[in-house]
Specification:
Helix content is 71%, strand content 0%. It is mainly α and 119 residues long. The protein folds into 2 domains: 3-66; 73-112.
């Protein structure tokens, strides 16, 4: 086995353990500070907080993206924008670009244009 794979695996395990500890104590603190007074429920310990964390992950599927989802969504945004720009007339494109520039104060990315820029 290659040395870098072992190093990556060890780093992942250490990061996951650190994240579990931080999130576990964070959930414990938040629950014990808020829930007993608001809903008159019991306080929880660290193991119960980790259980809540796992249960929320199972039920709601949070904590990150699957299969590089963030990159795929970014690519999907670009694809949808290219489709939108392709369906516009040149006048609509100019209006859209002007509105975008006024909205965010930045220049428009030329990569979404289908035609060659005029020099």
């Amino acid at each position: 086995m290659k040395k870098w794979i072992v190093i990556k695996a060890v780093k992942f395990v250490l990061f996951a353990a650190a994240a579990a500890i931080v999130f576990g104590y964070g959930i414990t603190w938040l629950w014990n500070a808020l829930i007993p007074e608001i809903f008159h429920l019991n306080t929880i310990n660290f193991c119960q907080a980790i259980g809540l964390l796992i249960l929320s992950r199972i039920l709601f599927g949070g904590f990150g993206h699957r299969w590089g989802g963030h990159r795929l969504k970014g690519g999907m945004w670009k694809y949808k924008m290219e489709q939108k720009m392709a369906s516009m007339t040149p006048e609509e494109r100019e209006e859209f670009q002007a509105k975008w520039k006024n909205h965010c104060g930045c220049s428009w990315d030329q990569s979404f244009r289908k035609e060659e820029p005029i020099s």
